[in-house]
Automatic annotation (TrEMBL):
Domain of life of the organism encoding this protein: Bacteria
Identification of the protein by name: RapZ C-terminal domain-containing protein
Classification lineage: Bacteria, Bacillati, Actinomycetota, Actinomycetes, Kitasatosporales
A Pfam family matched in the record: PapZ_C
All residue ranges annotated as the RapZ C-terminal domain in the record: 5-121
InterPro entries xrefs: RapZ-like (IPR005337), RapZ_C (IPR053931)
Membrane-spanning ranges: none
Length: 127
C-alpha cells in the first residue's frame, strides 16, 4: 500500500499554522490574487484563481520540489503519514490552489492523498 499524504492549506491571518512535517509559506514569494479586484472574492474553487496562481513563476517548480521532499519523508524507516501544510495570507487563493496541484502531482506518483482547506471558506480578510 502506498503512503498517505495529508495536505492542509491555511491562511496565516486566521491562526497558527497546523502541525506538519513540512510547512510552506507562500505569502512572500508569490503574487497574491487578492490584489486583483476581479479575483479577490473568488477562491481556489474558481478557475480564474487557479489559473492565476498556477501561472505564477516558481509555483510549478515548488510543486515538484515539494513532491520530491514528500517522497523523501515517505521513504523513511518509520515514515507513517506525511503531513504538508501550505499557507498564504487568507487561505483562499494561493494555498488551496497549491495544495490541489501538489495532490494531483503526488497521486500521479501513486501516493494516497487527503486534502483539507482549513480557511478557504472564511470571508475575505480586509487589508
Amino acid at each position: 500500500m502506498s503512503a498517505l499524504v495529508e495536505i492542509l492549506s491555511f491562511g496565516y491571518l486566521h491562526g497558527e499554522p497546523p502541525v506538519a512535517d513540512l510547512t510552506l509559506d507562500l505569502r512572500h514569494h508569490f503574487r497574491d490574487p487578492h490584489v486583483s479586484p476581479e479575483l479577490r472574492y473568488m477562491t481556489a474553487a474558481d478557475e480564474p484563481v487557479r489559473t492565476a496562481v498556477l501561472n505564477t513563476a516558481g509555483i510549478a517548480a515548488l510543486v515538484e520540489a515539494t513532491a520530491t521532499a514528500v517522497a523523501a519523508f515517505a521513504a523513511g524507516p518509520s515514515a507513517g503519514v506525511v503531513t504538508v501544510a501550505d499557507g498564504c495570507a487568507g487561505g483562499r487563493h494561493r494555498a488551496p490552489t497549491f495544495a490541489g496541484a501538489l495532490a494531483e502531482r503526488l497521486r500521479a506518483d501513486g501516493f494516497r492523498v487527503a486534502v483539507t482547506h482549513r480557511d478557504m471558506h472564511r470571508p475575505v480578510v480586509q487589508r
